[in-house]
Design goal:
Blueprint: H1 2-17, E1 32-45, E2 50-62, E3 67-74, E4 86-92, H2 95-108, E5 126-136, E6 139-146, H3 157-174
Antiparallel strand pairs: 1-2, 1-5, 2-3, 3-4, 5-6
Length: about 180
């Protein structure tokens, strides 16, 4: 298990630190659609039963033409002040950034990551759970995972590297 992780890191680290995209990864005919979702979750106890509810949800959608849509939905805020709301921001991502994301997905084997289950630790009641759904040239991959502190399983570095790239796009949109 350690060997594939080490190989993935050896491939990904240069791709993220270099500004130039490997020519082997560039294909003008590639089509990509990325949907990245983050849920801030909380476990609410009703005595005998428990329910996991979303305090807020962020959805980032990146289309093949570089169009970006960011939605933030704030559900009931549980502190007694009332219900939340929804916001939507339209933006775009530079062609170079979209090519870098596509190259990262193609060159690291993201599309063939096995779908694993990441069980939540029993004592965790407040955590973030994320989803990435990618459609690359008609092939679709979808992965769900919690933040690393909420599970005892290792989140693959391929996932965390892509997550940090997408979080950076969100920060640029909302700032």
């Amino acid at each position: 298990m350690a060997i594939p992780v080490i190989l993935a890191l050896l491939i990904m680290i240069p791709m993220l630190t270099e500004t130039e995209i490997p020519s082997s990864a560039i294909n003008p005919n590639d089509t990509i659609h990325i949907e990245y979702t983050k849920h801030d979750l909380m476990v609410v106890s009703f005595g005998v039963t428990e329910k996991t509810v979303a305090k807020s949800t962020e959805i980032l959608t990146i289309k093949n033409d570089g169009t970006v849509q960011y939605n933030k939905i704030t559900d009931y805020d549980f502190d007694g002040t009332g219900y939340g709301g929804q916001s939507q921001i339209m933006s775009s991502v530079a062609d170079e950034k979209l090519q870098k994301l596509t190259a990262l997905i193609k060159e690291t084997g993201f599309m063939s990551i096995p779908k694993e289950s990441f069980p939540i630790l029993d004592d965790v009641t407040d955590y973030t759970k994320s989803t990435i759904r990618i459609t690359l040239n008609g092939n679709q991959a979808q992965i769900f995972w919690p933040e690393q502190d909420a599970t005892d399983r290792l989140i693959p570095p391929i996932i965390t590297m892509l997550e940090s790239e997408l979080d950076e796009i969100i920060r640029q949109i909302i700032d």
